[in-house]
Amino acid sequence: MNMQVVLLSMLLVGVVSIVIGLLLGLAGEKLKVEEDPRVGQVRACFPGTNCGGCGYPGCDGLAAAIVAGEAPVNSCTPGGPAVSARVSEILGVENVETVRMVAKVMCGGDCTKTKDRYDYTGPQDCTAMGAVPGGSTKGCDYGCLGYGSCVKACGENGIRIVDGIAVIDAEQCVACGKCVAACPRHVIKMVPYAAKVHVACTSKDKGKDVMKVCDTGCIGCKKCERTCKFDAIHVIDNIAVIDYDKCKNCGLCAKECPKGIITLNS
Predict the structure, then answer these.
(1) What percentage of the chain has pLDDT greater than the value 90?
(2) For the chain, which ranges sit under pLDDT 70?
(3) What angle do CA 37, 84, 183 make, to 5 degrees?
(4) What class is the 100-194 domain?
(5) pLDDT for 32
(6) pTM score
(7) CATH number belonging to domain 196-266
């Protein structure tokens, strides 16, 4: 091959490459979108868990949404009031009061208190229970299944299985809601962190049917309802339900409950 032709070809390729590079550079400058510097400032306020509890694709997505006015300043649940206050200051807007929330397992029927229908040796996953006879091995159709779907969903190592039911560490919980979504029986609820009184049961069966399968389930006796001085607890569909906006954490209902299913956390 003629060396002159080879050199000319190499030169031509080099020139074309330089021209394309210049054109791409000019296009990039022309089409680039300037990012609001406040996005980075807001992003720096977050704890960086990327939990997805806010509904956006990670902390970067949430920061952009807050600056754009598409999400409230208190959208970062793991950050709580402190982050909300800093974000409000950066954006020059009024702070929105934040109530810290945590996940709570509303079931006290561990393996020492509930009756099983049969022994089970299949997949250790709550969602798999829909395929087994009766929908679960436990006699109660409302209680925690105890196979750890919530444990797998939690990215904070805040849940463990103890005596057949899930237990959540409130100090580890970032309120992302992943465990709530993972629970097929909807036993896990989001509650205010400051709330100390909880009904650890979700069964809507009548009292006599509850007692057949669980030694500690709510029987709907209404003693708690009659005891409460703040109209904060009522029996609805055979189960005691607490209004956390009214509850004063006095614990009178917990002391009165004959089944000990209303708990008072210190």
Answers:
(1) 62
(2) 1-3, 5-7, 27-34, 266
(3) 110
(4) alpha beta
(5) 58
(6) 0.77
(7) 3.30.70.20
d(CA 57, CA 15): 42
**Domain assignments of the chain as residue spans, ordered by start:** 37-91, 100-194, 196-266
The reply to whether 196-266 shares the fold of 100-194 is yes
Please tell me the number of Cα atoms within 13 Å of 168 on its side-chain side.
31
- Could you please state the CATH topology (level 3) that the domain comprising 37-91 is classified under: 3-methyladenine DNA Glycosylase II; Chain A, domain 3 (1.10.15)
